[in-house]
Design a protein that fits this description.
The structure holds two protein chains of two kinds.
Chain A lengths: L1 H23 L2 H28 L8 H17 L3 H13 L3 H4 L5 H30 L10 H27 L1 H4 L3 H14 L11 H9 L7 H7 L7 H26 L9
Helix pairs in contact in A: 1-6, 2-3, 2-6, 3-6, 3-11, 4-7, 6-7, 7-11, 7-12
Chain B lengths: L1 E16 L3 H7 L5 E16 L3 E5 L6 H9 L6 E6 L9 H4 L2 E5 L11 H11 L4 H15 L14 H13 L5 E5 L7 H18 L2 E5 L3 H7 L2 E6 L2 E7 H8 L2 E8 L13 E6 L2 E7 L3 H8 L4 E8 L2 H16 L1
Parallel strand pairs in B: 3-7, 3-8, 5-6, 6-7
Antiparallel strand pairs in B: 1-2, 1-4, 8-9, 10-12, 10-13, 11-12
């Protein structure tokens, strides 16, 4: 069993490295990415400093608590960049180069997850570095939970959340096999995320039943809840959040398997 | 033992037909018409291990569709297909590990990285051990003389260099079958020649079965002992390439130069005169009349004579025309 599993694992690890190496090719991209992260923290620092000059607490957050939440949540949001997967699959199916993945002895979904992991690792390293530098430079008293269990739950939630978003975008991408055009699906996904995370309309304005329904969707647990957990809040939601994400990951994997089995036969490889 | 076998293999595509103009587009919103197009029809084909076969046909003949079915990329509509004992469209990893496909316009290389990087990835994907990987890499790097290009970003390579790299990456796992779809597209004569030489060597030394799709007849005539001509999805010829060319090579072109002025008059009744100057005569005769035509010009004491086969383009045109008649 061990001898079978090992090479299987190594091919995806190498795919992670390949995408990490591809990110590192462009030096100016690396520098600008760091500058972008730094400038975001700088603007947030200036903005919240002005707001906190008039009061000590905003929505239960102190100045340093708010900055800590902002740094963590923007750091996690930057890691979630799976949108590119659906676009990449859509484009490759439409121009026929999806063939390149079909002829290789790999699991296509696993390969896309590995590619995403390579990109995420790159941003993880540089964004983390930039965040640490600025925490020290602005002497931010970083508010971070001291409970190992909360840290573990948040880390697990981040992993499951990122996995779910990759699965979702992979699923939307392979819909191109049947529908050829998936922009409507992508738009629905985008608006659903905005709605479920309260970005369009504050969740407090919805009837209780709708809010409850939203909390059954996975989007709330991808970046928002882990950020809250890491800043020592909403601890009671950790376990239900993890269970919700596990349910969605398993469910979506089943949907992907069924869809792939049926739709891959529709692929005509026409394009270039 | 056949490595590839197909029986009555058929692939039909369903495509959307839109009437012309804006009104047609609007009507299509609620009533849509489709037509069926057979890309490959009742195709029977068998291939033995180690063969080097050429697939010839005009654009849209069904060559690429056939290759896609053989590699499992697309599923046949009907018929039987077996490649190395597998049903290709099951896309089993054990099957995919045993073949390689190089499509001239679909690169497997990572353009931002080097060929060495892509090879490292393919080593893991095909689960090669380090020793085997190094030996194969060494063999192909040497054969293609590309050692100094292995650490260069792929996007900076020329088309010919890139194609060599595509082939090396594809052959790294020593596949039993290599599918090549237009590998010499866009390449200059030198690069095409190098690639031909390389493919021949791979076929002979490694015993790799090669299925080559190409519009370049020179690729087919110099590499493939056997050819299959496809037209409108049907097989119109399957046999020795030499015989195929002999069958469709109908004329000889004779060029003769003379030290004195000549006037052929009625001496060459079967010939079509292409060029005539006082000291030079170029004419085309049916190949069975070539000896008689040469005998006829000998009394004029030619200073030089050249006898050429039909141009390859003319031969190809005839093959395809014959295919159309067969269809009708």
């Amino acid at each position: 069993m061990r001898t079978r599993l090992l090479p299987e694992y190594r091919k995806y690890r190498e795919a992670v490295y390949m995408n990490l190496k591809a990110q590192l090719v462009w030096r100016s991209d690396v520098i600008f990415n760091m500058l972008f992260t730094i400038s975001k923290i700088l603007f947030a620092y200036l903005l919240w400093r002005i707001i906190f000059q008039q009061k000590d607490m905003v929505a239960g957050f102190t100045f340093h608590g708010m900055l800590s939440y902002y740094i963590i949540s923007s750091f996690l949001s930057q890691l979630e960049m799976s949108d590119g997967i659906s676009g990449e699959i859509f484009w490759r199916i439409r121009n026929g180069t999806f063939t390149n993945y079909m002829v290789l002895p790999i699991n296509t979904e696993g390969y896309f997850i590995a590619m995403e992991a390579g990109v995420v690792l790159f941003y993880l390293a540089f964004d983390f570095l930039a965040a640490v530098i600025w925490i020290f430079l602005f002497r931010i008293r970083f508010v971070f939970t001291q409970e190992p269990l909360m840290i573990f739950c948040a880390a697990l939630m981040v992993l499951l959340g990122l996995l779910f978003m990759v699965q979702l975008n992979y699923y939307l991408g392979i819909l191109t096999l049947k529908y050829q055009e998936i922009n409507t699906f992508l738009m629905i996904k985008k608006n659903l995320i905005l709605l479920a995370t309260g970005t369009i309309v504050p969740l407090a304005l919805f009837p209780e039943k709708i809010v409850k329904l939203m909390s059954r969707l996975p989007f709330y647990y991808v970046t928002y809840l882990p950020s809250m957990l890491l800043t020592g809040r909403c601890g009671e939601e950790a376990v239900p959040g993890i269970l919700t994400l596990i349910f969605w990951c398993v469910f979506l994997q089943f949907v992907i398997a069924v869809t792939w089995k049926s739709y891959r036969k529709k692929y005509d490889g026409v394009g270039i | 033992m056949n490595i590839v076998e197909t029986q009555n293999l058929t692939k039909t595509y369903r495509r959307f037909v839109k009437p012309e103009g804006l009104s047609g587009s609007i009507r299509n919103l609620w009533k849509r018409e489709y037509e069926e197009k057979s890309a490959v029809r009742n195709f029977d084909f068998a291939l033995k291990e180690g063969e080097f076969i050429g697939l010839i046909g005009p654009n849209g003949a069904g060559k690429t569709t056939l290759t896609k079915m053989l590699t499992g990329i697309i599923a046949p509509t009907s018929g039987k297909i077996s490649v190395m004992g597998f049903y290709p469209n099951d896309l089993k990893n054990e099957f995919k590990r045993q073949y390689a496909v190089v499509m001239g316009q679909k690169s497997q290389l990572f353009f931002e990285l080097t060929t060495n990087d892509t090879m490292r990835l393919f080593k893991e994907i095909y689960e090669l051990d380090e020793k085997e990987f190094r030996e194969t890499k060494e063999y192909f790097t040497e054969l293609f003389d590309v050692r100094e290009l292995m650490d260069v970003q792929v996007r900076t390579l020329s088309l010919g260099e890139r194609m060599k790299m595509e082939l090396i990456v594809a052959l790294l796992h020593n596949p039993r079958i290599l599918f090549l779809d237009e590998p010499s597209i866009g390449l200059d004569a030198i690069a095409s020649n190098q690639i031909r030489k390389f493919l021949k060597q791979v076929n002979q030394e490694r015993g790799t079965t090669i299925i080559l799709t190409s519009h370049y007849m020179e690729d087919i005539s110099t590499l493939c002992e056997r050819s299959v001509v496809i037209h409108h999805g049907c097989k119109v010829y399957d046999g020795r390439t030499e015989e195929l060319f002999a069958r469709y090579q109908k004329n000889k072109k004779i060029t003769a130069c003379f030290s004195r002025e000549i006037s052929p008059g009625e001496s060459l009744p079967m010939a079509e005169i292409v060029e005539k100057t006082p000291h030079k005569l170029v004419f085309i005769v049916p190949k069975e009349a070539a000896c008689a035509a040469l005998a006829a010009i000998m009394p004029w004491n030619p200073t030089d004579i050249a006898v050429e086969e039909d141009e390859i383009g003319t031969v190809v045109e005839r093959i395809y025309q014959e295919g159309s008649r067969y269809e009708d």
